[in-house]
Specification:
By secondary structure, the chain is mostly helical. It contains four helices and no strands. It is 82% helix and 0% strand.
Length: 119
């Protein structure tokens, strides 16, 4: 029994229980601080990822308002002219042809402008 007591006294001197208690308290403090930091970072990441949902909600709300005031992009696009615009491939060679082609180009541009105004 005396040997066990001597061993325990020697162990207490080496381990210094008060010093170990301080180390444990510091560890608990640092662990709690780490938990709070992790929680804050998780919330920040979640908020950042939720911004995508906010953009979708904003787009939905914008579409709802546009629908309420009668602006329909799809309906306007369906009435837009389709197909390719005709272009002239050969350059006019004479002055008369040049004047005629300029007047037809102007007429063509005026017709296109009028059709755009109707939309």
């Amino acid at each position: 029994m005396k040997g066990a007591t001597t061993a325990m006294v020697a162990m207490n001197k080496q381990m210094a229980p008060t010093k170990q208690a301080k180390v444990i308290k510091e560890f608990q403090k640092q662990s709690a601080q780490l938990d709070m930091t992790i929680e804050m970072m998780s919330e920040a990441i979640d908020e950042t990822l939720d911004k995508d949902e906010a953009e979708e909600e904003t787009e939905d709300l914008t579409n709802q308002v546009l629908d309420e005031i009668g602006v329909g992009v799809a309906s306007q696009l369906s009435s837009a002219p389709k197909g390719r615009i005709a272009t002239k491939t050969a350059a006019p060679t004479t002055v008369n042809n040049k004047n005629d082609s300029e007047s037809t180009e102007v007429d063509d541009l005026e017709r296109r402008l009028a059709s755009l105004r109707r939309i």
